[in-house]
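Complex record, two chains
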Amino acid sequence: MTTRNVLWIMCDQLRFDYLSCYGHPHLRTPNIDALAARGVRFTRAYVQSPVCGASRMSYYTGRYMRSHGANWNGFPLRIGEPTLGDHLAKLGVRNVLVGKTQMQPDTEGMRRLGIDPGSSLGVQIAECGFEPYERDDGLNPDQAPRVPYDDYLRVQGFDAANPWQQWANAADGPDGKLLSGWLLEHADKPARVPEQHSETPYMTRRAMQFIGEAELDGRPWCLHLSYIKPHWPYIVPQPYHAMYDAAHIVPPVRSQQERRDPHPVYAAFMAARVSRNFSRDQVRQRVIPAYMGLIKQIDDQIGVLMRFLAERELLNSTMIAFTSDHGDYLGDHWLGEKDLFHDCSAKVPLIVVDPSPEADPTRGTVSEALVEAIDLAPSFIRYFHGEPKSHVLEGRALQPLLHAETGVDWRRYVFSEYDYAMMSARRTLGTPVDASRLFMVFDGRWKYIHAVGFRPMLYDLQTDPEELHDCGADPACDAECGRLKDALLAWSLRDHNRITMPDARIAAYTEASQLESGFVIGFWDQAELDAARQP
Amino acid sequence: MTTRNVLWIMCDQLRFDYLSCYGHPHLRTPNIDALAARGVRFTRAYVQSPVCGASRMSYYTGRYMRSHGANWNGFPLRIGEPTLGDHLAKLGVRNVLVGKTQMQPDTEGMRRLGIDPGSSLGVQIAECGFEPYERDDGLNPDQAPRVPYDDYLRVQGFDAANPWQQWANAADGPDGKLLSGWLLEHADKPARVPEQHSETPYMTRRAMQFIGEAELDGRPWCLHLSYIKPHWPYIVPQPYHAMYDAAHIVPPVRSQQERRDPHPVYAAFMAARVSRNFSRDQVRQRVIPAYMGLIKQIDDQIGVLMRFLAERELLNSTMIAFTSDHGDYLGDHWLGEKDLFHDCSAKVPLIVVDPSPEADPTRGTVSEALVEAIDLAPSFIRYFHGEPKSHVLEGRALQPLLHAETGVDWRRYVFSEYDYAMMSARRTLGTPVDASRLFMVFDGRWKYIHAVGFRPMLYDLQTDPEELHDCGADPACDAECGRLKDALLAWSLRDHNRITMPDARIAAYTEASQLESGFVIGFWDQAELDAARQP
């Protein structure tokens, strides 16, 4: 049997609708579209939290945010939280990282359990269960730990105290002045770094290097190629910086009505600096062409990577997943960044190419099934012939959908969470740190958002697909709100921590097993006991 | 300053109302009453799950069952779950065990993290953060690992293959036959072991040995003296076996109405063997006098222990807590054992003696505050001048109540959970393993029980203090049910796993800290950035 592998490509902050296969009218992404033609394109895939850190910890553990507890960027993943790497290791599969995870290790927990962060186990824990072939979270200001990419740039002759900041994240200004890529006004300028040495091609090459070495190694692998882009800083090298202009910008999805009497939490997010800036046409016109250029570059690199896999004859044995950790408002709904649950933020592109013959019937098809980011980890485990542990992994393997199995009883709701305690919105609203929480329940039509301490928000995506009308305060929607609140309660009451006891062991427990272990509970006399012991 | 210590006495399966200070009409418990006279007696203390293992893991972690995930007896406590011992160690306090914990170590998790179960750290983890001076879970059938008490009995001349089973848990029958203490019909007979060598005095002596040794050691300690009794097997040595008879038995709290159209989950528990047996007067009359004798013996031993502490002049520096891990139906409500949420099961006695002068105003008083078992761990930490971490410990230190502080904003609801997947009730009902769950919300008057997949149960303890009338199906109670369901939702949506990030660090995070770390998000140009950087 051929060795099976998984190539799991993740973009960062890539909206679901900025790919041609997802309907963008001007951005052509033929290489990603080709993946969709070979696999299943999911149109209702949601992340478990629309922010990098929390979303990724859900992807990497297969568990909801409330289960892994790493609620936001920089919140360490608690020690002992089982990761995809732990599950794959049991199957003899290497779980390898090239790129970003935003993992923050639980050093206090490691100390408590006497684990040396420098040991190979310590590194694996610190890297969220990945073997870090190349770890780079992509945001490397002076204060951040240095990354190998810095050294790479230096070797190529791009020397500087902080090569990332001064070459990859800067443009040339007049009089030899550097223009910072952190500032939105510079998004139309080319990054100083030549394209072939920018981050996306660099990471693609690192992935190919790994794949080449892994061929010699022989063990199966799951490679997480985790591109930093099109996440800000919005700056891209030439020629990508000039490929798109105002004519290619999709108009913002927003209405004046949204600003009249909005939900208080929504209002607080609209009041944030990034939202105010992205609500200005000037900002959108400067930034969106760069955002599109960054995506186009990724698409080109995926073309390089696919040709590489084809040459090595790996396409028939490699499951390929392409997705993102969340979207980007880009001024839609008068918002910038991500964080809330409109589709452009909480919904992501997801394409899965399963090379198995069982998946032949679904090639090139579109699935509207309600899919969660946590479904990928169990799907990979299943691809490697493992059995995902349902008491640990809260997602569902996608194979029944990929293989067009009949009679599949799929989930009826997707859930997503957001902890805004670290955001300016918390200060605007004056909400307590432990009560600054939002929860999304979406049933395919109604999107209900439970806001702790406030009324809910509600959108009917059937009549209002652009999510411009929040009917959470409309008494006519009370019944929908009640139904979805009940679904939220049912979900939140589910076990999130019973990770040491599998369902099967519980199901097998009977009075007979109790008696076998010597425990005699509630029997009156020997006769009653003897009767119970009869087979 | 005198070294402070904590003596934390726990009984197992002791109902709240089988002590004279809690109103039992026939059972005199003067030594426990004396504790109440010196401290605060709580009349609304509830456990987080009415079953040994789950309740104890909540006591030992200060966290709800849904947080620690050890839902039932024998479910391992997940590796990395912080325990009281972890918190006390940071304060230089020894956390010491004499008796029962029912801790099951997460050996799979230990393997995953490379922790040797034989190392001192491994032992501490395996013992739930305790230094096991004497570990004995009290149920020692032939199949169980042997305990030091076995050797003790042998040294005293009570030799046998299983001394616990053959001496402590057996009575002499006719013709030299052993009568098993596991069987209820033998509860009226004296255990074969002489009283001074039975488990309760043995554990008391072990506690005193520890205290004596600790005096030489000098470090402060928290000693968990965890009696196995009055948990079944219901058998007690003489003279305690004959102290009580039918005249001393409180009539059962039950009504025929309870058996007419009961809630399906309640019905399934009534149908269990132990419930059917305890619904027979013969069983109650045989068992309850033994149960009372076991309690009387504990009370006498607490007298021994208190005299020991007084002689050593430790009473003025030692906080003493006396409680239980859950109650015992004893035939009330047509039920045996514990598991459901009637007061005789989910409510426990709780007496806290705080020797600090600040507690002088409350000595001998009664508190009706809504108290949870998870409040003890933070109370102990506070007694040792520590600051309980609110993002880890979900209980609240009791000191504001013990010190009669004014303006205390105490909790308005207590919560308890039950996972009945391991019970015969699950088979009776045919509920899925992961949906066999009950949740109690009690506000001091209304006790609401959310039963996944069924209608709720509801009791009004103001008009129905004996909990004989379930009004959960009465439309007149819909508003109460709705209000309490909302409280349940709010509770279940709270963070249960954000244990790596303290509230204070989150509260301190601002745009300024973001800029200091080099992240520039959403700024248009340098002027805007400079303005934000102005102090």
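Note: The radius of gyration of chain B is 24 Å.
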